[in-house]
């Protein structure tokens, strides 16, 4: 229902010309400019009243849907949503607002949001009519600069083509050959952490046995996506000041300014926001330059290798180049996507696993026992790990799944109705924003039972539970979504995550630096403890 401001402006100019020509008595101060300004202001005001109050309250087909209490007349639920961690209010509403599968809430100026709460609604949007619900254009333009317009942001037939082409690189048949890389990098991380706490003068660490786990996690996962995904070791683990790692950390840190700009992006054209002389704009454009040039160099050197017949690796980039389906610029966009989508997410999972291990020392010891009993020692550099070694550890699998259920690294994602459509037979106007919230679905009592919010790895143990956690519907676990736009890197991520957890828990006893820490979650694309997670680690000899 939004009317473009430029239409109102044009309209005001034409009306002003008309009034000044044929009815000058009605003009403002006999001036074309003042008349146009007055007409424009009046139209903006009328349009605002229409779109903020009249349409959503009296006419929108969404107005009859169940809605959480506490909406203000103009700001809707904006204050509740913006004050809490991403996904937290939705986690509460899914329990407290009676609904048949969808809930409506409103954002700033009563812009409607439709939250999906049932497997049936999720199936319609994510699977059966997936391409009718596209990624919102503000997501494409906002994220596209950093992530590249690759598979994550492509739509329709173009998305289908890219997904088909890239799928072989992500199939389990291929991923199973990457386990030794996951293990080698996990070992490298654990050895470097060990060294850091023994030599407390390493820059970036506190002079004690305390480490900020997010820092290690993002360096390790960047290296892993580099080697296993793109055939290039970035050596971020070896170098705490690695430029690429620092760059990603700076752009993915959800500062108040970043949040404010994201919010403004809903109302102010992005080209204006990006032209503002702000430090954040400079940081992002420097980051994009570095990421793009890294990706360009990777494409060039991989192509040269392949031309010389020097192919030794089966990484995602090689598969993409050999498919012949992508231009050089497309390849750069895909690489940008894999680098960003493929490392911050798994890093967030490792942070949450560490946090939960600290809160549940009994789970930590039981897991350590399983790992030490079944896997070769982390100190054994010649030990080779296969997919069977990692995948056949039931408690490790249970802890990893339960961590990703309780703290899904991606708390929320968005879609937009591409046309007037329906969800569960409720009319949904074109342009409506649809909220898919793993954070809420993964802890819904309707789907998981009364103990839904508790961390209980045992729900994944026992016959038939290893893949379901005991839930009846596979839509109950939404961490990687479902359907044609689910995470293509799911098998990669699960194996990588399990290797990292096994190495860390096998080697270290961990506790929170501050046992009274109050969890403050910083939202953004991935959820993390704000300001980092500081953990005391103690190497346990004998493995
Ligand atoms: C624990 C780790 C991970 C989590 C929780 C995760 C989660 C997700 C989610 C929720 C989406 C869907 C986003 C949306 O459509 O709105 C997604 C898409 C995607 N993920 Fe992951 N991801 C993880 C790791 C990875 C890794 C390691 C890679 C690459 C190696 C990867 C590559 C991608 C790509 C390319 C897409 C876009 C797929 C498409 O649109 O067809 N992800 N991921």
TrEMBL record:
Q: Which organism is it from?
A: Lepidopterella palustris CBS 459.81
Q: What InterPro entries does this protein's entry cite?
A: Cyt_P450, Cyt_P450_E_grp-I, Cyt_P450_sf, Cytochrome_P450_monoxygenase
On whether Membrane is a keyword of this UniProt record, the answer is yes
Which positions in this protein are listed as binding heme? 487
Q: Which UniProt keywords apply?
A: Heme, Iron, Membrane, Metal-binding, Transmembrane, Transmembrane helix
Provide the protein name: Cytochrome P450
Q: Which residues cross the membrane?
A: 35-55
**What cofactor does this protein call for?**
heme
Sorted alphabetically, which Gene3D superfamilies does this protein's record hold? Cytochrome P450
Q: Which domain of life is it from?
A: Eukaryota
Listed GO molecular functions?
Answer: heme binding; iron ion binding; monooxygenase activity; oxidoreductase activity, acting on paired donors, with incorporation or reduction of molecular oxygen
